[in-house]
Amino acid sequence: MFPSDSPELALLSGSSYFELQTTTHGGRSLFATTDIAPGTRIYSCEAPSVHIIYRDYRKEVCAHCFAYSASDHAPSTVGSSRTWSVKWSRADAATAWFCSNSCKDSWELDEASALLMVVDTLLTKGQARTRKRFKSPEEELKVKFMLPSFEPDDRSITQKVIDAAWESGEALVASGAHLTLYYSTLHIEDMELEIARSLAAAIVHRYCDEHLSPSDSTSQTTCNRSESWPQLLNLQTNELCNIQTRPYMLNAYLRIYVFLSNTLPKYLRKYTSTVREVLARDTGNAFGIWDGDRRDEMMGWGIWVSASYFNHSCMPNVQKRRVGRELHFEASRRIHAGEELCVSYIDTDLPADQRRRELEESWFFTCRCLRCEKETTAGMCVRVAS
Ligand SMILES: C[S@@+](CC[C@H](N)C(=O)[O-])C[C@H]1O[C@@H](n2cnc3c(N)ncnc32)[C@H](O)[C@@H]1O
């Protein structure tokens, strides 16, 4: 059971349909405290604490409600360009697009919004400053050994190795001349820039949360970040299994850390520990922001902190639906008091071995849901019998 002042309980205390429990098979999970009729909205999570819309979609996805202008349901006001026409722009900042003036107004109420656009432009300019060529093979070699590097099939990754790699990153950031050379020859790639943008968004939100006056903190301006930083930190971390599965990601993470540490304005640099903290939690806790129900295109992703407490089942009883910025969770069948409330993270029509592989490779866990347990047991019986 969770103490009454635990961050998890504070976060989920609004629901009369469930309680948080610790399971033997899959960490913390939500359990029904009452019988629930099909179609009942069990929970809504207001807005992501961290999110990113990929650059390629910026003109087509409303910066506030994530409506997609090129979807089948787009209103006729969207012209042949298939982009939204309501804009927010400023000389030293990236432009934001909206599906309506009311979305623009709501977005502007959050004081982090304009700052994010300024930081976005700094990052784009920063990327251009990382494109210097090496003066000589010796210089290239020198830069190569400034940070540790991991190969795709590296089997040596332990928590100690990861900690040491991050310490090297911090030392490089503190190093002056080495940093200047490393940074200018980084050649930050577009996907790394996207990750850097999402981490910069988390940093800006932390900064704004700390610098909002107490009177503001109860106003509408903070409603988009009702789930605060300590609650995000309380999410399960997947750092070790993520890096053990994809060691090369650590190379990218360190490069992004150095890039942000040297690109962000000085007043944001004190928050660069956010980079590792978010990267340890986004894998396994983030939800994709998709274009619609058909899930053809992922336009970005976000962490809706309280929504991350729903475990997975290959026979789910809860359906997740995004409505604008909100995530809604509804009973997909009759649920009895005491049942675990689960959504599905993957396509549950896949055969057992494919589901298992996808959950292990992309979500880093072996599924212990009732269906998988049954199918595994049945498989074992068949193997014994044959
Ligand atoms: C989004 S989090 C869900 C909340 C998590 N249980 C916690 O304590 O923070 C996903 C993680 O929960 C666990 N999990 C979720 N569904 C599971 C399942 N069906 N079988 C085993 N573990 C599961 C895995 O550790 C997975 O990485």
From TrEMBL:
Check the record and name the InterPro entries matching this protein.
H3K4_H4K5_MeTrfase (IPR050869), SET_dom (IPR001214), SET_dom_sf (IPR046341)
What Pfam families does the record tag this protein with? SET
Domain named SET is located at 7-346
Name a single GO cellular component. Answer: nucleus
Q: Which CDD domains does the UniProt record give? A: SET_SMYD
Q: Which PANTHER family match?
A: HISTONE-LYSINE N-METHYLTRANSFERASE SMYD, POTENTIAL PROTEIN LYSINE METHYLTRANSFERASE SET6
Tell me what this protein is called. SET domain-containing protein
Its lineage opens with: Eukaryota, Fungi, Dikarya, Basidiomycota, Agaricomycotina
